[in-house]
Amino acid sequence: MPGRKVATPLKAKNDSKPAKRTPAKQTPAKQTPAKRTPAKRPIDNDDQTPTPKRRRCLFTNPNNQPECYEDPSKIGSLAGLFLNREKIRLPGKTQLIKTVDHRMQIHDPLCTPVFPAKVPIDTIVNDFLIFKKLIRANKKATQEQMVQHAWGLSEMVRIFNEYTRSHILLAPEFKDFDKKRAKKASPSQTYGVIHLMRMISKLHEMLLPLSIYEDIKEEVPEFMKFIDSNYKKYWNREAEYPTTDKHSFERKTGIRWLE
Fold first, then answer.
1. Could you tell me the Gene Ontology terms of the biological process aspect for this record (predicted)?
2. 86 falls in which pLDDT band (50, 70, 90)?
3. How far is CA 28 from the centre of its chain?
4. Reported pTM
5. What is the CATH number of the domain that holds 140?
6. CB environment 101-136: b (16+ within 10 A), e (fewer)
7. What is the band of 183 on the pLDDT scale with cuts at 50, 70, 90?
8. Is 49 part of a structural domain of the chain?
9. Which residues of 145-161 are buried (b: 16+ CB within 10 A; e: fewer)?
């Protein structure tokens, strides 16, 4: 049998210096540029509180200028067309009629003015035309005469007839209005001075063309003075509210009896 080879132990090297290794050749890798970090600065105590964000004003545009509307006569849209209209003032007793009606609506909403009115709006306008000597006494003005002599008042009557239910009447008055409308009676033939004052006081809020509003506004003041001078003929105080006597009327309205 052949003899086995015995492994001889390696001799330990006495050199303290490690053997030099030759580095393997490596291909240079592509280096990505490092991100620059901003330089740190000392933070003062005052800077530690975050600054609140400024809220943008809703009434200014990005140029910090207040919102304004252009001249409505130079633009096609309706923006600003119904703004800044001067309210028609009611003189003397006409304002009293409006105030009484407003307080009655607050204290007794179900107590509506008498219907139909004893003196309708058409009769009041006709009396004014006679007073101005535009038509003969005891004559009734035709539509052509109204348009010719009092265009503003004719437009006022037309607007009243169109806007009666939507802008002038109260909810408890709708029932009587619908009955009269079924009989094809115009509102100006059934409603009187109380409802007329309601309309005049809110005419500037209605969506009317500016030209029509100006035409009505031009003639209404003289017409209101005529009603003020003859208010007893067209308004009978507590008799205008059938379910109210004199004492309850004065208590609800806060107005004493006027001779």
1. chromatin organization; regulation of DNA-templated transcription
2. confident
3. 76
4. 0.67
5. 1.10.274.30
6. beebeeebeebbbebebebbbbbbbbbbbbeeeebe
7. confident
8. no
9. bbeeebebbbbbbbbbe
